[in-house]
Specification:
globular; binds uridine-5'-diphosphate; alpha/beta; Rossmann fold; seven-stranded parallel β-sheet; 14 strands
Length: 323
Amino acid sequence: MKLLVAGGAGYIGSVVTRLLVQEGHEVVILDDLSTGHADSVPEGVRLESASIADADRILDGAGFDAVLHFAAKSLVGESVERPSIYWHTNVVGTRLLLDAMARHGVPRLVFSSTAAVYGEPDQVPITEDTPCRPTNTYGATKLAVDMMISGECIATGLGAVSLRYFNVAGAALGAGERHAIETHLIPIALDATSGLRDKLTIHGDDWPTPDGTPIRDYVHVLDLARAHVLALGAAQPGEHLICNLGNGNGFSVREVMTAIEEVTGLPLPATVGPRRAGDPTVLVASADRARSKLGWAPEFDLRRMVADAWAFRGTAPEIGDRR
Ligand code: UDP
């Protein structure tokens, strides 16, 4: 297929791009490089360094078979402090993309949604029928886009798959996490392990969980990427399929820390700080629908995610500047 990957220079987009190329697809990346990296774009892939508002020009007469849409602002804390940027980039940006796709007859969309749409769920594991009650602007904007896509499928016959990611980690195919502003547990903990930071601050250890730290469902970025390839084949005209992507296993912050110490063989200096606003206690996915509708099954465990992220760090040029 001929594919436009919006946000393909970012963490997940760059891994998915590499897998798509490996599978024989023709890929063009659209990325404004606001958080992505031009050198994450693999050889043989054209980079359109432009805003999502330029999708209309790029799709015009080009015969694309599908768009994979990763281009979004995705920091929970920032979304609470600066909601306007999130509504404009994530919602208005996607509206412009959908209009351009309809105008130029692009029949399929795979969209990066998030577990943040569910907020603090009443029960786990979370299925796609769990009520969506986002607790921050990031989750609200992704939910708004999911709703927009549902309407688009009915109105235009678009075939779409939204993939709701839980906690993505690891590296694959020469690409990995290279965020200038890092907020995620595993890369921050690896910084602390290797001395790039003094320590990890645990965001509270008084949560109602067995060891007092919050529990999350970690999924390897290569497993996630494989779900995107499967989603391209599963998209049906006029239908919007929504699937959670997680392993179905929960790990606490302290369990992740133990895995990091075991995998790296190094001590992880840490201190306990206050809870982080907006953090839910437990988020664990039911990925039954992804299994049945996409034929997806995650392969890699938490230790493999840590090992791959640890190995990738040695190759990422800017990690040394992240203090
Ligand atoms: N966390 C932490 N210290 C950090 C970063 C994260 O204790 O420096 C905790 C965070 O409170 C949450 C878990 O690690 O319980 C996973 O957080 P992350 O930001 O990686 O992903 P999220 O679940 O927020 O999307």
